Amino acid sequence: MAVKVQTTKRGDPHELRNIFLQYASTEVDGERYMTPEDFVQRYLGLYNDPNSNPKIVQLLAGVADQTKDGKCQRNFWTDYYSSSYPF
C-alpha cells in the first residue's frame, strides 16, 4: 500500500521579508531586527498582559534569537519560515 505524503509549500521570501519588516521595531546600522517583545508579543500574540513576566518573553524569544543578542535577524527568520511556513 502506498503512503501519501502531504507537502507544504515554501513561503515566498519577498512576502516573508514584508511580514518581518512589519513587526521589526529596531534598526541598527541600517539592519532591522525584531526585539523579544516584537517576536513574542506582537508577532506571535502571546503574553500581552501588562503583568506578564518579561523573563518568559525573553525565554520564548530565544528560539528565534540565534545569536542570543536580544535581536531576531531577518535572514534567520526568513530562512526558517521559507522552509516550514505554509502560504
TrEMBL record:
Q: Does the keyword Coiled coil apply?
A: no
Report the record's Gene Ontology biological process terms. calcium import into the mitochondrion; mitochondrial calcium ion homeostasis
Q: Where in the cell is it found?
A: Mitochondrion inner membrane
InterPro entries noted in UniProt = MICU1/2/3
Q: Where is the signal peptide?
A: none
Question: In the record, what terms sit under GO molecular function?
Answer: calcium ion binding
Q: Reply yes or no: does the keyword Protein transport apply.
A: no
Recite the UniProt keywords alphabetically.
Membrane, Metal-binding, Repeat
Q: Which GO terms describe its cellular component?
A: uniplex complex
> In its UniProt entry, what is this protein called?
Solute carrier family 25 member 12
Please report the organism this UniProt entry assigns to the protein. Answer: Nomascus leucogenys (Northern white-cheeked gibbon)
UniProt lists the gene as: SLC25A12
